[in-house]
Every structure is written in structure tokens, then in C-alpha cells.
């Protein structure tokens, strides 16, 4: 996880790119606290990415977003259209293995593979629209979870448990 040493090195790089930006111990401590859950190598790469792409001194949010991009790119996440292509190829098989479990989750939420296979071919544009929207929403939720601070995630989970309900999810079949 992003150590104080990693954040200190990051601030040396950042100060080289933004020499007139005021750096304080409080600023460095804040960045260290809010980036602590990011692995050192990813944090370093995210800072370099921000130096290359940000016109102004990067915020914690920009560095976390860059880190999420790096992790997502490394995972080679499937986009919604490639995922739909995989669903289409699976129609001819009786048993399917998804390259990404989220494809199966999205398909279940829009009605399931069996219902899709039995539907009329003229319904395919509707299925595609519902599937791609559901898949995109699932990816957005995953992305939000990836950029969320652990403290915020823990609070949301605690609040959800106190209410006796789970964090709202997409409903089955919608």
C-alpha cells in the first residue's frame, strides 16, 4: 500500500512539475492518508500519469481515478459491446463460460440466457439495449467501488447493516 516514502517521492516528482505549487506537511499527510490503500507501484504510476495529463496540480480524486484506470486497463476489462458479442456467440451453446463473471450477472438481471434464446429474433435490439445498459451500470458500480476510499466503503456497509438492508442493487429482470 502507498507508504509515506512513496508519497514523499511522489511529491518530489509533483514539485518538479509544479514548482510554484505550495507544499505543506498537512498536504502531504492528507495525500498519504487518502492514497494509503493503493499499492505503491500503482500509486507511483498514477502520479506519473497525472503529471503527464493534468494541467494543474492533481487532486487526490484525480490520482485515485488514474490508479483505477491503471488497474482496469491491467485487468483488460471487457466493454459492454464486446460482452454482448460474447452473449451472442453463447446462444448456440447449451453451456456457457463467461470470460468475465459480470457478463453472466448482467444477463441474469435482464432476464437470463434461456429467455433470450427463446425470444423472437426481432426482440434482439431490445435485449441488446437492456444488456448493454445493465452491463455498463455494473461496470460503473465496480468503478465507483474501486475509487471509493476504504473508510467511506466501510461506513456505507455499516449503515446498510444498521438499516437491515443491502446497498441498493439492480433488480432481477430489469
Helix content: 55-70%
Strand content: under 5%
- The domain tally reads 2
Gyration radius, to the nearest Å?
21 Å
Which sheet architecture does the biggest sheet show?
A: none
Number of strands: 0
Describe the model.
By secondary structure, the protein is mainly alpha-helical. The chain has two domains: 4-75, no CATH class; 80-163, no CATH class. It is built from nine helices and no strands. The protein has helices spanning 4-17, 25-35, 40-53, 60-75, 80-90, 101-109, 113-118, 124-147, 150-163. Helix 1 (4-17) runs parallel beside helix 3 (40-53) and helix 5 crosses helix 8 (124-147). The longest helix is centred in the last third of the chain and has 24 residues, at 124-147. The protein is elongated, with a radius of gyration of 21 Å.
Properties at a glance:
mainly alpha, 9 helices, 68% helix, 0% strand
Summarize this, please?
With 174 residues, this protein is mainly α.
Topology overview:
Layout: H1 4-17, H2 25-35, H3 40-53, H4 60-75, H5 80-90, H6 101-109, H7 113-118, H8 124-147, H9 150-163
Helix pairs in contact: 1-2, 1-3, 3-4, 5-8, 6-8
Amino acid at each position: 500500500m502507498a507508504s509515506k516514502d512513496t508519497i514523499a517521492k511522489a511529491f518530489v516528482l509533483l514539485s518538479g512539475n509544479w514548482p510554484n505549487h505550495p507544499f505543506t506537511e498537512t498536504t502531504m499527510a492528507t495525500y498519504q492518508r487518502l492514497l494509503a490503500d493503493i499499492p505503491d507501484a500503482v500509486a507511483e504510476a498514477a502520479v506519473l500519469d497525472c503529471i503527464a495529463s493534468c494541467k494543474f496540480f492533481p487532486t487526490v480524486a484525480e490520482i485515485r481515478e488514474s490508479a483505477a484506470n491503471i488497474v482496469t486497463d491491467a485487468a483488460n476489462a471487457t466493454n459492454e459491446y464486446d460482452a454482448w458479442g460474447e452473449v451472442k456467440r453463447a446462444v448456440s451453446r447449451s453451456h456457457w463460460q463467461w470470460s468475465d463473471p459480470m457478463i453472466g450477472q448482467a444477463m441474469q438481471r435482464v432476464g437470463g440466457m434461456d429467455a433470450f434464446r427463446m425470444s423472437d429474433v426481432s426482440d434482439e435490439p431490445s435485449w441488446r439495449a437492456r444488456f448493454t445498459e445493465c452491463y455498463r451500470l455494473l461496470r460503473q458500480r465496480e468503478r465507483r467501488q474501486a475509487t471509493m476510499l476504504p473508510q467511506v466503503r466501510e461506513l456505507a456497509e455499516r449503515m446498510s447493516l444498521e438499516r437491515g438492508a443491502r446497498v441498493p442493487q439492480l433488480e432481477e429482470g430489469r
